[in-house]
Amino acid sequence: ATRVSTDITAVDSSVTVQERIEMNGHRGGVIWMTGLSGAGKSTIAMATQRLLFSRGRHVAVLDGDNLRHGLNRDLGFTDTDRLENLRRLAEVAKLMAVNGSLVLVSAISPLQKYRDMAREIVGEDFREIYVSADIALCEARDPKGLYRKARTGEIKNFTGISAPYEAPQNADLVLDTAKPLEFAVTTLTEYIESIFGELP
Ligand code: PPS
User: Fold this and answer.
1) Ligand 1, from 77, 79, 89: best to mutate by most atoms within 8 Å of Cβ?
2) Span 129-165, pLDDT tens digits
3) Counting atoms of ligand 1 from 1, which one is nearest the CA of 82?
4) In ligand 1, which atom is closest to the CA atom of 75?
5) Catalytic one of 37, 109, 132, 162
6) Residue 108: CB within 6 Å of ligand 1?
7) Is the CB of 97 under 6 A from ligand 1?
8) Has 54 been annotated as catalytic?
9) Of 24, 48, 108, 160, which one has the greatest count of Cβ atoms within 10 A?
10) Any atom of ligand 1 within 6 Å of the Cβ of 82
11) Cα 100 vs. chain centroid, distance in angstroms?
């Protein structure tokens, strides 16, 4: 259970959402990318960031793996720890989006309940993107050698091998990684611009 102090009052921002939209040419939002380890989430997120940045968009990437080196260094891969990991990611992403950024979150976020929690935290400017990849392909690629370690039992609770992955049934967008990287990047960029790129 979370304890919330009663002696706190939120302060109003000195810059309005509308002012940010007028300055930046787009609103902020959270683009939540879920998928297996090795599906290509980080690669697509980084390439999409590059493209959006080159178009003058305010864009940032929050990578699950990266945040586990700092903010989330106290967390492992149990259900409780993944939930907390993703809760923090969602809260940070929300703050950044409220401050005008397009936030690309790339995290396995293996269960629907985690993604629903993230959507609940962020609110209406949240979109769930499924980076779809065949588990056999991810395991064959095994860019970090983690699947091999999962098979030998050296890594426990490994998503797709010894821990579950629930593919989203109602994703806002599905990126098929069987196609070339450029295709996913173009599709995602166009999607983001169509959702967040215009004044509401
Ligand atoms: S989660 O499930 O959303 O909290 O995971 P995430 O924060 O995205 O971190 C996933 C990266 O951690 C590495 N790793 C593992 N992944 C899954 N299961 C286990 N047990 C595990 N142990 C370490 C792995 O490199 C993941 O990175 P990606 O980029 O997805 O391959």
Assistant:
1) 77
2) 999 999 999 999 999 999 999 999 999 999 999 999 9
3) 4
4) 4
5) 109
6) yes
7) no
8) no
9) 48
10) yes
11) 17
ipTM above 0.95, yes or no: yes
How much distance in Å is there from the Cα of 45 to the middle of ligand 1? 16
Query: Higher-confidence residue: 79 or 18?
Result: 79
pTM: 0.95
Residues 58-106 have pLDDT tens digits of: 999 999 999 999 999 999 999 999 999 999 999 999 999 999 999 999 9
Does the Cβ of 160 fall within 6 Å of ligand 1? Answer: no
Kindly tell me if the per-residue pLDDT of 200 is higher than 50: no
